[in-house]
C-alpha cells in the first residue's frame, strides 16, 4: 500500500474521522483509523462502536491499493504539524506505516484492517434524500429536549418518524417534548420509526451544514447511515420503543396567548434568578392583555415581571419549570410566540404563530 | 486466543449438542449460568458458545472461523461481544462495568446480528453490580444472550441465579477425559491418571499442574503437615514456612487434603495419603471426624471471606489454621487414650 496526498486534502477528512475516535479505549484497535485505498479512492474510517465516520478523498494519482489501521491521534498530529502545502507520502513497510514529507520521516505501528470493527453495508429499507439544512433543522429544533442518562433508555435519543413525503423528529425527557416536522423527498408507504442515540444526534448535527447540499439517509433495522459527497456517517439505533408522543399533545386548549419572543425570553431569564435552584419553578399569572411572571425561592426572595401580551379571556394561574420555557424561547426564531393553555393542570403548547413546523409541549408544575 | 474457533472439549459434547439444538430451534434461554467446579473448561465452553452465537455462517454446530464476525472474534474486537470480568488488580466486577454493558445493550447490534454478554466469574460481581444487572438479565432486548460462568453458584446473588437458566456442569468421568489428556501429558514423569486424580478430576486443572511448581509445593506442604502432626515443628514455625505461598492456593489444597483424609479414614484408597509414614498415618487415623468437620467449616469461612475481597492478616490466618490442626490432633489422641 502506498499513496501521496497533499497535507490539506488529507487533513480535512482525517480530522473529521478522528473526532469520533476516543482516546481512552478498551480495545487498542478502536484508537486507530482504518485507511483503505482503492486506486485513487482513499477512505478513512474511525469508530467508537456507537458512531462511525468514513471520510473519502480522491487522490491526484492512483497509488498501490491496500488497507491498514494506524493510531488516529498520532496521524492527525503528524499531518497537522507538517508545513502547509507539503505533500505526504504514506507507505507500508512490513508491519509499520511509513510517513514521509520533505525531510521528515515517521514510522507508525499498525494493526491489521481485519481487526477493525467497521459496520458492514446492510440492505437499507428506507432512503431519504434531502438538503442538509432540513436535517440540521430537524435536529436543532428538538435536540435540547432529549433526556440524558435516563433509565428509560429509549428517551436518551431522538425519534425519527418517516411517513410519505415527511420526516418528523421528536425528543422528550418526560417533562417536556419537542417535535419538528419537515417535508422531504421520501417514498414510504407505512410509518417507520427509529430512535437515534443521543451521541449520534449531536455528532450528526455537527456534521450537517446549513446549505442546500444534498444528503442521502438510509435507515435499516440496526443503523442509520448518512452519506454526503465527502463522508458517510453511521450510527447505531436505540433498541426500544418510543412512547406514543401523540397522546402527550394537549388538545382543546382555549386560552391562546400571543407574546413577543424576546421580551418573554428576557423576562423568563430574569425571574429564573430568584426561582428555586433545584425545581426552577415560576408562576405565570394570566389576565387580559398581560402576563405576570413570579418566582419565589426558599429564602423568601421574589422576582416579578410583567409582559404585555395579546390575550382576552378568563384569568389563569399556572406554574412551570422556567428552564423548559427558556429552552423553547431560545430555539424559536419568530418574533412572536403562541402559547396555548387550558387550565393549571394541563400542559402548555408553544409554537410559532404561523406556518410552524415545530411544536413544544411543557408540563405544568404544582407550586 | 491460540485455537480459533474454540471447539468444546470432548467431555462437553453432549451438552454442546443440547445447546446447539436449542439455538437451532430458537429456544436458547436469554440468560445461561454455567456452573461447576473450577478447571473443567466452563469458560472455554462459554467462549465457544459466544463464537457460535455470533458467527454468521456456523457450520456443523460451531463457529466457521472464516466469516467477518469470526475474524473480529479472533482479533478480540467484536463489538457485540460484551465481556465482563474483574478489571486488572481487582477481584470484583464493579457496578460501572455493568452500567456500561447495559448502556450498550440499549442500542442495536453494531454488526447487526446477536449480542452476547460474557460474564465470569459471576460470583465476582459485588452487590451493587449484581443489582444493576438484574433488570437487563430479566428482560434483555431480542437477540441478546447473557452467558454467566461461575465456580460457586451458591455465592451468586439468588436474584441473579433465579433469572438465569442454571446449567450445572459436573466433573467429567475420567474415561472421557483420559483419551484427551494422555497425548497432552506424554513425556512427563507423571501419568495422566495420577495428574487427573491430583486435580480431583478437573481436566484443565490437571494440565495446569504440569506447568509451574504446584506439584512440588503440594509435596512440600504434605511433608510440612506430616512434621507438624508428629510435633517435629511447631504450628508457628509451620505457618512461617507457608508465609511465601499464595493463601488461597494453600487453603484450597488444605481443604482438599482434609477431605481426602476423611475418605481415607473411612477406608477408601487415597493415593496421596498412602505415601505417608506409618507414624503419621497412625496419628491421622485417630483424628476425630466431628472435629475435622468443624475445622473444615471454619476454613471454608476463611476462604469465602477471601473471595469476597477481604484482606485478612496472612500470618494470623496461617498460624490459627496450624494451631487448630495441632489442637485437633491432641484432643483426638486424648480421647482415644481415654477410651482405651
Main interface pair?
A-B, 26 and 19 residues
Rg result of chain A: 25 Å
Figure out the total of helices of chain A: 6
Distance between the first and last residues' Cα of chain A: 68 Å
* SSE run of chain B: HEHHEHEHEHEHHHHHHHHHH
Strand content of chain B: 5-15%
Give a brief description.
The complex is a heterodimer of chains A (367) and B (340). Chain A is an alpha+beta fold.
Give a written overview of the molecule.
The complex is a heterodimer of chains A (367) and B (340). With 367 residues, chain A is α+β, with helices and mostly antiparallel strands. In chain A, 17% of the residues lie in helices and 42% in strands. Chain A has six helices and 26 strands. In chain A, strand 24 and strand 25 form a beta hairpin. The relative contact order of chain A is 0.12. The mean pLDDT of chain A is 93. Chain B is an alpha/beta fold. Helices cover 55% and strands 7% of the residues of chain B. Chain B contains 16 helices and five strands. Chains A and B meet through loops of A and helix 3 and helix 4 of B.
Q: How are the SSEs placed, and which strands pair?
A:
The complex is a heterodimer of chains A (367) and B (340).
Chain A: E1 2-6, H1 7-18, E2 32-38, E3 41-47, E4 51-58, E5 66-71, H2 72-81, E6 87-93, E7 96-101, E8 104-109, E9 126-131, H3 132-140, E10 157-163, E11 166-172, E12 176-183, E13 185-186, E14 192-197, H4 198-207, E15 214-219, E16 223-227, E17 231-236, E18 255-260, H5 261-271, E19 281-287, E20 290-296, E21 302-308, E22 316-321, H6 322-331, E23 336-341, E24 348-351, E25 358-362, E26 364-365
Chain B: H1 13-24, E1 31-35, H2 42-54, H3 68-75, E2 81-84, H4 95-105, E3 115-119, H5 127-138, E4 144-150, H6 158-161, E5 165-168, H7 174-185, H8 192-198, H9 203-210, H10 214-229, H11 235-242, H12 247-265, H13 271-274, H14 278-286, H15 289-307, H16 314-339
Helix pairs in contact in B: 4-5, 7-9, 8-9, 11-16, 12-15, 15-16
Amino acid at each position: 500500500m502506498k499513496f501521496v496526498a497533499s497535507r490539506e486534502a488529507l487533513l480535512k477528512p482525517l480530522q473529521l474521522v478522528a473526532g469520533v475516535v476516543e482516546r481512552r479505549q478498551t480495545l487498542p484497535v478502536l484508537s486507530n483509523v482504518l485507511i483503505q485505498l482503492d486506486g485513487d479512492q482513499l477512505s478513512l474510517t474511525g469508530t467508537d462502536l456507537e458512531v462511525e465516520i468514513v471520510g473519502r478523498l480522491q487522490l491526484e494519482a492512483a497509488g498501490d491499493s491496500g488497507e491498514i489501521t494506524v493510531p488516529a491521534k498520532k496521524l492527525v498530529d503528524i499531518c497537522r504539524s507538517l508545513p502547509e502545502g507539503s505533500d505526504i507520502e504514506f507507505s507500508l513497510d512490513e508491519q509499520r506505516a511509513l510517513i514521509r514529507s520533505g525531510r521528515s520521516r515517521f514510522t507508525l505501528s499498525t494493526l491489521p484492517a481485519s481487526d477493525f470493527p467497521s459496520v458492514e453495508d446492510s440492505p437499507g429499507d428506507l432512503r431519504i434524500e434531502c438538503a442538509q439544512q432540513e436535517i440540521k433543522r430537524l435536529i436543532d429544533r428538538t435536540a435540547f429536549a432529549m433526556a440524558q442518562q435516563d433509565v428509560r433508555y429509549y428517551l436518551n435519543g431522538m425519534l425519527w418518524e418517516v411517513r410519505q413525503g415527511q420526516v418528523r423528529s421528536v425528543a422528550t425527557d418526560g417533562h417536556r417534548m419537542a417535535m419538528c416536522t419537515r417535508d422531504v423527498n421520501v417514498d414510504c408507504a407505512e410509518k417507520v420509526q427509529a430512535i437515534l442515540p443521543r451521541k449520534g444526534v449531536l455528532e450528526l448535527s455537527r456534521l450537517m451544514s446549513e446549505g442546500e447540499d444534498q444528503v442521502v439517509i438510509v435507515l435499516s433495522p440496526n443503523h442509520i447511515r448518512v452519506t454526503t459527497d465527502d463522508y458517510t456517517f453511521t450510527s447505531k439505533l436505540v433498541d426500544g420503543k418510543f412512547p406514543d408522543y401523540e397522546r402527550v399533545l394537549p388538545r382543546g386548549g382555549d386560552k391562546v396567548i400571543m407574546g413577543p419572543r424576546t421580551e418573554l425570553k428576557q423576562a423568563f431569564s430574569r425571574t429564573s434568578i430568584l426561582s428555586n435552584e433545584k425545581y426552577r419553578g415560576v408562576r405565570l399569572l394570566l389576565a387580559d392583555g398581560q402576563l405576570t411572571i413570579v418566582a419565589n425561592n426558599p429564602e423568601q426572595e421574589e422576582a416579578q415581571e410583567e409582559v404585555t401580551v395579546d390575550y382576552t379571556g378568563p384569568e389563569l394561574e399556572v406554574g412551570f419549570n422556567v428552564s423548559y420555557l427558556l429552552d423553547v424561547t431560545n430555539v424559536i426564531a419568530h418574533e412572536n410566540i403562541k402559547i396555548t393553555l387550558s387550565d393549571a393542570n394541563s400542559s402548555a403548547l408553544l409554537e410559532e404563530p404561523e406556518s410552524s413546523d415545530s411544536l413544544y409541549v411543557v408540563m405544568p408544575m404544582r407550586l | 486466543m491460540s485455537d480459533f474457533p474454540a471447539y468444546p472439549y470432548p467431555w462437553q459434547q453432549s451438552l454442546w449438542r443440547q445447546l446447539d439444538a436449542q439455538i437451532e430451534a430458537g429456544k436458547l434461554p436469554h440468560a445461561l449460568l454455567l456452573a461447576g467446579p473450577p478447571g473443567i473448561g466452563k469458560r472455554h465452553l462459554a467462549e465457544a458458545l459466544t463464537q457460535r452465537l455470533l458467527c454468521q455462517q456456523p457450520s456443523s454446530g460451531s463457529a466457521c472461523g472464516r466469516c467477518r464476525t469470526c475474524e473480529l472474534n479472533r482479533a478480540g474486537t467484536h463489538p457485540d461481544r460484551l465481556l465482563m470480568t474483574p478489571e486488572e488488580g481487582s477481584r470484583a466486577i464493579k457496578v460501572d462495568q455493568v452500567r456500561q454493558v447495559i448502556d450498550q445493550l440499549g442500542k442495536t447490534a453494531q454488526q447487526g446480528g446477536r449480542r452476547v454478554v460474557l460474564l465470569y466469574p459471576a460470583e465476582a460481581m459485588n452487590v451493587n453490580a449484581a443489582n444493576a444487572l438484574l433488570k437487563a438479565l430479566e428482560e434483555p432486548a431480542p437477540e441478546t444472550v447473557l452467558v454467566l460462568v461461575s465456580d460457586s453458584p451458591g455465592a451468586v446473588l439468588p436474584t441473579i441465579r433465579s433469572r438465569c437458566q442454571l446449567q450445572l456442569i459436573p466433573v467429567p468421568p475420567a474415561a472421557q477425559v483420559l483419551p484427551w489428556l494422555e497425548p497432552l501429558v506424554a513425556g512427563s514423569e507423571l501419568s495422566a491418571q495420577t495428574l487427573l486424580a491430583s486435580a480431583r478430576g478437573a481436566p484443565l486443572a490437571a494440565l495446569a499442574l504440569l506447568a509451574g511448581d504446584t506439584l512440588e509445593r503440594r509435596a512440600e506442604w504434605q511433608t510440612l503437615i506430616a512434621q507438624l502432626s508428629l510435633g517435629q515443628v511447631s504450628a508457628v514455625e509451620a505457618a512461617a514456612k507457608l508465609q511465601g505461598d499464595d493463601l488461597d492456593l494453600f487453603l484450597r489444597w488444605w481443604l482438599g487434603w482434609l477431605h481426602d483424609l476423611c475418605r481415607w479414614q473411612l477406608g477408601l484408597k487415597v493415593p496421596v495419603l498412602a505415601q505417608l509414614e506409618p507414624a503419621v498415618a497412625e496419628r491421622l487415623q485417630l483424628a476425630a471426624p466431628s472435629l475435622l468437620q468443624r475445622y473444615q467449616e471454619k476454613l471454608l469461612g476463611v476462604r469465602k471471606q477471601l473471595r469476597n475481597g477481604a484482606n485478612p492478616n496472612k500470618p494470623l490466618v496461617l498460624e490459627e489454621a496450624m494451631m487448630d490442626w495441632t489442637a485437633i490432633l491432641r484432643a483426638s489422641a486424648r480421647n482415644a487414650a481415654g477410651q482405651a
